[in-house]
Amino acid sequence: MSDTPSSSSLVGRIGGLLMLALAIAYGIGGSQIEYAFASDPLGPRVVPVLLAIILTALCLLYLKSPGSTEAFPKGQLLVKIAAVPLLLFTSALLLEPAGFAVSIFLLTLGVGWIFGAPLRLAVVGAVGQAALWWFVFSYLLDVYLPAGRLFG
Asked: Phi, psi at residue 95, to the nearest 5°?
């Protein structure tokens, strides 16, 4: 796309429509949360539904007048931007079979390498992140984390 104002606002509107779809999906998901009414009069539905309503309103305001936006990324930057959600998806798929530590290690390693960290430093950072988050969730917050088939 060229950097003309009309293509710039088109990119903004596409982003606004994607966020609007996310807000609607989030609201639908939040409204379907089941809970025992006796536990809390408002229940756990209120926060996600309220956030979805606010995000929907902001998306509609943005779609009305998106203002100026950056041009759509091209080339290597587009590949980097697309690689991060792919890494997140892969990490989520690996969570049960490989375990939390391996999944977070690979995610952090990949993101570091994508954005230009030397491989040695990306490995060191990934080991540190995996150890840090394993400690925080397992020991400080006492949250169950899957160990995976390798360590389980």
From this structure: -60, -50
Q: What is the largest CA-CA distance in the chain?
A: 57
* Radius of gyration for the alpha carbons in the chain, expressed in angstroms and rounded: 20
**Which parts of the chain are beta strand (E)?**
none
How far is the C-alpha of 67 from the C-alpha of 61, rounded, in Å?
11
* Tens digit of each residue's pLDDT, the chain (152 residues): 444 555 557 777 888 899 999 999 999 988 888 876 666 666 777 888 999 999 999 999 888 887 776 777 788 888 988 899 999 999 999 888 888 888 999 999 999 999 899 999 999 999 999 999 988 888 888 888 787 777 66
Nearest to 77 by CA among 22, 116, 118, 105: 116
Q: Which residues contact 138 (CB under 8 A, 6 or more apart)?
A: 145
Q: Which of 44, 47, 53, 145 is nearest to 98 (CA)?
A: 145
What are phi and psi for residue 2, nearest 5 degrees?
Answer: -85, 170
